[in-house]
Amino acid sequence: MTWIKTIPMAEADEQLRRAVEAQAALxxxxxxxxxxxxxxxxxxxxxxxxxxxxPEALYHAFATFGVLMSPELxxxxxxxxxxxxxxxxxxxxxx
Length: 95
Fold this sequence. Notes:
Layout: H1 14-24, H2 46-49, H3 55-68, H4 77-90
């Protein structure tokens, strides 16, 4: 298993804290509690925490997904989940 240095939210500077909060604000409310929370708490998931050394990249990478999940777009949450499941299966990804 790969190990990536991360910055726990308890030790985050203002730039990292703002990036995490700003990208999280774009996500639907049912994503508010991470399935795999990162050590150190603060509400970030492990995948978000893996980008903690580069706050600007963290924001842009995860804000994109947040915007794509907007309830104002024509696809429903159910359709998003079906697409994600098919793509993950095709890519043999455990997510």
